[in-house]
Design a protein that fits this description.
By secondary structure, the protein is α/β, with parallel strands linked by helices. The chain is built from five helices and five strands. The structure holds zinc ion.
């Protein structure tokens, strides 16, 4: 009897475990230098830790369609994803005079689709002289878009990194084990 009970108890756990993987497929990530790529992943890992999901990073270009994940997202990197200052930088003063779009995620028929496009040039412009934080900033933006996908909402929080408008402080500040901001 003991063995039977254990088996019954173990089944839902195994199923639950399998449902906890998120495959993140990066498109055009070749230009991202090793250090920036590592920092971006670490930032996303930290911000999404409380989802309980294990993140698996893959390059779209290397995908052979042979891996199974519970959830999938495709993040396309646009522009020059290098930790070098952009030719043109935004005003350093806060709040920015001009708003720019750092990333977009596709919404169709009210559903948030798992496809995001992140604009590296705009992130570099937003950072100005703080370009050494490029990898982290990219991670904040990617985590923000993934949250829209995971929660299937375009809503924004009133505080924290899920606000609609972020500034360079939001993009460069490391906060360990952050709470997931509740979204409307
Ligand atoms: Zn957003």
């Amino acid at each position: 009897m003991k063995g039977l009970l254990l088996l019954v108890a173990a089944l839902p756990l195994a199923a639950d475990d399998a449902a906890r993987s998120l495959g993140i497929f990066l498109e055009h990530s070749q230009a991202l230098a090793g250090a920036a790529l590592k920092e971006m992943k670490s930032e996303v890992d930290s911000r999404l830790r409380r989802t309980g999901l294990t993140l698996h990073w893959r390059a779209v270009e290397e995908n052979r369609g042979k891996e199974a994940f519970d959830k999938l997202a495709v993040v396309s990197l646009k522009g020059r994803c290098i930790a070098r200052p952009a030719g043109q930088t935004l005003d350093d003063a806060l709040p920015f005079r001009k708003q720019v779009t750092l990333a977009t995620t596709i919404v169709k028929n009210g559903q948030v689709l798992p496809y995001s496009e992140v604009d590296c040039d705009q992130i570099r412009s937003s950072l100005g002289s703080r370009i050494s934080s490029f990898g982290r900033a990219l991670g904040v933006v990617v985590a923000h878009e993934l949250q829209h996908i995971l929660q299937n909402t375009v809503g924004h929080a009133k505080v924290g990194w899920m606000r609609q408008a972020l500034d360079w402080r939001d993009l460069t500040t490391r906060k360990e084990g952050q709470d997931l901001p509740p979204l409307p």
